[in-house]
Amino acid sequence: MTLKELAQFNGQNGTPAYVAVSGVVYNVSDSKLWENGNHEGAHQAGQDLTEALKTAPHVRSVVERFPVVGQLTAPTTAQQPGKKTPLVPLLVTAGIIAALAIMLLR
């Protein structure tokens, strides 16, 4: 699940409330402390709370009690139109292949 997908699970309008911590996505919907996706006015569901948890008044194990619903992943990036592949890596690869071919043909 990407951050963009996670944001859809903010606990608002009947959607589940999910939070991510250290790459793991938890369902906090059943907690009274996450009513309507809001945690005591300090945090909103649908976000990565890894950094916020470092200064939280409770330990990480509190969050780890909730059901795991997925993993947080980086979005895949497609090659943008008009953006060229860097030439140096291609030339290095071609040189290695050429050197291997010469060694094999000897």
Describe this structure in words.
The chain has 106 residues and is α+β, with helices and mostly antiparallel strands. It has a single domain (1-75), classed as Cytochrome b5-like heme/steroid binding domain (Flavocytochrome B2, Chain A, domain 1, Roll), CATH 3.10.120.10. Helix content is 30%, strand content 17%. It has helices at residues 3-7, 50-53, 60-63, 87-105; strands at residues 18-21, 24-27, 38-39, 43-44, 47-48, 68-71. The strands form 2 sheets. It has a 4-stranded mixed sheet. A two-stranded antiparallel sheet has the order 3-4. β3 (38-39) and β4 (43-44) form a beta hairpin. The radius of gyration is 23 Å and the shape is elongated.
- How widely separated are the two ends? 51 Å
Mean pLDDT: 84
Compute the gyration radius: what is it? 23 Å
In what range is the share of β-strand residues? Answer: 15-25%
Number of helical regions? 4
Going by CATH, the homologous superfamily would be Cytochrome b5-like heme/steroid binding domain
Summarize the structure.
This protein has 106 residues and is α+β, with helices and mostly antiparallel strands. It is built from four helices and six strands. Strands 5-1-2-6 form a four-stranded mixed sheet.
Features:
106 residues; alpha+beta; Flavocytochrome B2, Chain A, domain 1; four-stranded mixed β-sheet; two-stranded antiparallel ribbon; 6 strands
